[in-house]
Design goal:
Elements lengths: L11 E3 L3 E4 L2 H12 L4 H15 L9 E7 L7 E5 L9 H6 L18 H12 L4 H14 L1 E2 L2 H9 L1 H5 L2 H7 E2 L2 E2 L5 E2 L2 H13 L2 H4 L1 H13 L6 H5 L4 E3 L2 E5 L2 E5 L6 H11 L12 H21 L10 H4 L2 H9 L20 E8 L5 E9 L6 E3 L4 E3 L29 E5 L2 E9 L3 H14 L5 H6 L3 E3 L5 E4 L5 H9 L3 E4 L6 E8 L4 E6 L6 E4 L1
Helix pairs in contact: 1-2, 2-5, 5-9, 13-14, 13-16, 13-17, 14-19
């Protein structure tokens, strides 16, 4: 790879193992697991459990999980879908009778059955080397003894203040004398520590049966939720067949629907035939083409994405060269397209992403989320479990492929990625930021593969995103005024993003030198550590 700019934040380079996460405590716990004989899966789940404590606004055991895993760095990619399902009583006709036209964030109906703990248990059993009890110990300690609130976490607490206040149990745990926690203050979650200890002792049954499940069900049912023990009994994740596309001389792997990975691949197929317009990925012409490709692809996401067990998702057609050619041909090289139709899908917000590579070159790409900041805002008080709001991903239109139905999974934005070349895994990667993730995969990979940047440069380069729910384009404030003016003349409604767009982690494997190059996004306190 060639370097096109003076170094800013340098990539981390190490010979043995590496972890890249969005929190230093999680990365440190993952490295400790690697040094203690754990493999990449053990380390990734250790980091994930720690983040479930120290980044409660983004992830937790009340959320969902997806994973791609390359054993010994091979191209035999394992994919796991640990996303939750709607309760069996959640038929669209019930919502119609209740006069509910859409599912909002803090409704109990926004809570699908959490899939993360089942995913952790299956992945540990099948691909780990350490027992779940060892994996959970660092998270248990931080929940029991407390952890320091970092700058970004303090921002997340403040941003979700109204959601936190919406539930008395949530407010009691996540507010400090009625106010958001500040940077440097210590926060403890003793009830969650006990729940993690129960899971460490009893595995899956420690969450989906007994006192923890009873506590969650009692809270949801008291609010009018339709959840039952039978729903918890059926909350079992699935190994699925990953999907891929070819870009330059690499293969890009994603999980199949109900996640949006297919649309990340569609974006790559479109951009594979678009000029780089020189050496600058932030030239007005290049930005314009990326924006237009994104708008077309997100239109298709709204039309087609849902649970493949309930409706046909035309994955092969979406990933065909002919379809990419037709979308690319629809891009006017000089002007923005007329406004696309309004989307019927809700906004998608928060998550955490983890990359780990171990000394044996097992490669793990894992993502875990509670969806919006602090999920549904609903906390089961005795267990300390904060519940996600993935049910917002459903629509209540019976004709739509993403309409809610008993036991159905909603559209998911979280998508771990894996890059392979010549039969070997060369990079686990992922992008945070909800809706942005598919577009973010394209931005990160093209900056890496088309513009010769290293992993850190590709992450540090300013980002932009055409909001799929409106007619504006968000740009980070480091994109020049000259470039913004040029895009405005092309017909784009440019607005400055009020917060960083997305975040990312990745580890590049240099097989020739047997070295690991890690990148992590400082916009979300990213931390890559190697040894």
């Amino acid at each position: 790879m060639r370097n096109l700019q003076a170094p800013g934040r340098s990539p981390v380079i190490a010979p043995h193992g590496m972890a890249s996460t969005s929190h230093s405590l999680a990365s440190e716990a993952a490295i400790a697991m690697l040094k203690n004989g754990g493999n990449a899966m053990d380390a990734a789940l250790t980091a994930c459990a720690v983040q479930a404590v120290v980044e409660p606004g983004s992830t937790g055991i009340g959320g969902d999980c997806f994973c791609l895993y390359a054993p010994a760095g091979s191209e035999a990619i394992v994919a796991f879908n640990g996303s939750g399902r709607a309760p069996l009583a959640a038929d669209v006709s019930w919502f119609q009778k209740q006069g509910i036209t859409h599912i909002t964030q803090t409704m109990p109906h926004a809570v699908t059955i959490p899939g993360a703990v089942d995913a952790w248990c299956q992945l540990t059993r099948d691909h780990g080397q350490k027992p779940l009890a060892d994996i959970l110990q660092p998270a248990i300690a931080y929940a029991r003894d407390g952890y320091p609130i970092g700058q970004r976490i303090a921002f997340d607490f403040a941003a979700a203040n109204e959601v936190i206040k919406s539930d008395p149990d949530t407010a009691a745990l996540f507010l400090n004398d009625g106010e958001p926690y500040q940077m440097g203050q210590r926060h403890q979650q003793p009830a969650l520590a006990k729940t993690l200890e129960t899971i460490a002792k009893h595995g899956r049954d420690g969450f989906y049966k007994g006192a923890v499940a009873d506590d969650i069900l009692a809270k949801l049912n008291s609010l009018g939720g339709l959840h039952t023990q039978g729903d918890f009994d059926m909350a079992i994740g699935d190994y699925v067949t990953p999907i891929k596309t070819r870009y330059r001389d690499h293969d890009i792997w994603e999980c199949p629907p109900n996640g949006q990975g297919v649309f990340a691949l569609l974006l790559m197929n479109i951009m594979g035939g678009v000029s780089t317009f020189g050496d600058d990925p932030l030239s007005p012409q290049r930005i314009h083409h990326e924006i237009e490709a994104g708008r077309l692809v997100y239109r298709d996401r709204s039309l087609y994405l849902g649970d493949p067990n309930f409706s046909t998702i035309p994955v092969d057609e979406l990933l065909s060269a002919e379809y990419a050619d037709s979308l690319r041909a629809a891009i006017d090289p000089d002007l923005a397209t007329s406004p696309l139709p309004d989307l019927s899908l809700p906004r998608h917000k928060s998550t955490v992403y983890i990359s780990v590579v171990d000394k044996d070159r097992n490669v793990c790409s894992l993502i875990n989320t509670v969806f919006h900041g602090f999920g549904s805002g609903i906390l089961a008080p005795a267990s300390g479990v904060l519940l996600q709001n993935r049910g917002m991903g459903f629509v209540l239109d019976p004709a739509h492929p993403n309409c809610i139905a008993p036991g159905k999974r909603p559209l998911h934005t979280i998508i771990p990625g894996m890059l392979t070349r010549n039969g070997k895994a060369v990079m686990p990667f992922g992008v945070m930021g909800g809706d942005y993730q598919a577009f973010g995969h394209m931005q990160f990979l093209t900056r890496l593969l088309d513009y010769g940047m290293d992993v850190q440069q590709a992450q540090d380069t300013p980002r932009f995103f055409a909001d799929p729910y409106g007619a504006f384009v968000e740009v980070e404030n480091t994109i020049s005024s000259k470039t913004r003016e040029a895009l405005t003349k092309m017909g784009h409604n440019i607005v400055e993003a009020t917060t960083p767009i997305g975040g990312s982690q990745a580890i590049w494997i240099d097989w020739e030198e047997d070295m690991l190059h890690g990148g992590s996004d400082p916009r979300k306190d990213g931390c890559a550590i190697g040894y």
